[in-house]
Amino acid sequence: MAVDVLIYPTTEKLSLEAADFIVKAANEAIADHGRFTLALSGGSTPRKLYGMLAGDPYKDQIDWSKVEIFWSDERCVPPTDAESNFQLAQEVMFSKLQIPAANIHRCPADEADRDAASLAYTQEMKRVFQTDGVPAFDLIQLGMGPEAHTCSLFPHQASLQEEVRLIMPVTVPKPPPPRLTFTPPLLNAARHVLFLVTGAEKAEALQAVLEGSYQPDEYPAQIVRPTNGHVTWMLDNAAAARLSQKEQER
Ligand SMILES: O=C1O[C@H](COP(=O)(O)O)[C@@H](O)[C@H](O)[C@H]1O
């Protein structure tokens, strides 16, 4: 697995580079196999990036009719709720783009039966990817929390050991607790994973994830090691403050 660690002075600069990165990945995927399959995260870090993708010059640099969008985790709240990961992207990105509604695959995490919702989202994904196996996303964009959680995979939870389900319900220690999340087998089938991590409160966990020994039960972000894929970490100076290797600093 190839890993790049890129460090930027501000969230603004990081978001600009991430937008360039996504445009390039989209155009390469569309040229190669006719479409771009993208999984988004939630949280606050990607807000600026999503806004940039919906504005000039980026919005016209991607053929959005050829982009299929999923979410790597979702909170079990209505899609209009301020805590909804879908709502964030809808508000700052999709509401401003010409993208066919059929290409936006919202996670039905607000349904009462969370097992059925996980299964339905898995089936929707397999339909779009036309596979009975594990879909390989062109790009999964992820964040990381201060305790090294990613998607809704949190330390010491059974979801970290999941080998069969691709999406599963979890109850996590961060509000809102009930969520649906991608599992390790789905994450690790990706062609490319892009982590966006900002803020001093994540520096300690980030050092453990990138430079410590492999302990994914303690540091869930370590579990993301795509078998045939590439991982790019985009960090701001504050998050990267404790890293000892900063030769790629910009
Ligand atoms: O709860 C979540 O947190 C992570 C990290 O969010 P951030 O605001 O610290 O970037 C996010 O990636 C995930 O999608 C979300 O549900």
Automatic annotation (TrEMBL):
Q: What is this protein called?
A: 6-phosphogluconolactonase
Give the UniProt family note.
Belongs to the glucosamine/galactosamine-6-phosphate isomerase family. 6-phosphogluconolactonase subfamily.
- The EC number(s) given in the record are 3.1.1.31
Single GO term (MF):
6-phosphogluconolactonase activity
Q: Which UniProt keywords apply?
A: Hydrolase
Q: Which Pfam families does its entry note?
A: Glucosamine_iso
A biological-process GO annotation: pentose-phosphate shunt
Functional note: Hydrolysis of 6-phosphogluconolactone to 6-phosphogluconate.
